[in-house]
Amino acid sequence: xxxxxxxxxxxxxxxxxxxxxxVAQSQIRAAHLEAVKGLDEREDLEPRLRQILFxxxxxxxGPAELVDIFTHKLTMTGRxxxxxxxxxxxxxxxxxxxxxxxxIYRLEKISGLRFAVLGSSGNLLDSVxxxxxxxxxxxxxxxxxxxxxxxxRIFVAYDHLCPRDAKWLHGESCDCGYVPARKTPNLxxxxxxxxxxxxxxxxxxxxx
Length: 208
What we know:
Helix content is 33%, strand content 17%. The termini are far apart. It has a single domain (11-201), classed as Restriction Endonuclease, CATH 3.40.91. The strands form two sheets. It has a four-stranded mixed β-sheet, sandwiched between helices. Strands 3-5 form a two-stranded parallel ribbon. By secondary structure, it is α/β, with parallel strands linked by helices. The longest helix is centred in the last third of the chain and has 15 residues, at 187-201.
């Protein structure tokens, strides 16, 4: 029996991406989709999603890797737990079983896995969807699919992608004049704030 209800979780129910609820599908244009489809799975998709999750741990890639992102910092429908992300970017315009079956199989080797996410900016064949879904249901793991539209909404919501002209935001504003209403702190800022709070807790005074 799947814990907590239906195993397939829609994007809006992934609490770690809660801000995506403020970005309607109608706000995403073709330029946003093309920007996402141009992302490399390891150099772009993985680090951007990891930053949003506030997880600085990098997954070692190679023949022995289990998933592309392995994290404990994901919550779905109010529940936290270990999560595995399988990501396919511009290198896979069409994702076929041979491209991902080995990674889906390795989900079975992760003890304590609670969530699995299959993200692809390209075309995901039905056979891949079925294999991923059936594996997760058999393992009693809640799962989600992220396509190019979903990832574009995430990146717009978390100030990686400009909602106006679909350019990547590398600073506090876009060349078009767009300025995020709420700036998302990066991992280094989060660690600095954490250190500052710990210092105050130890009554160490100012942090230089």
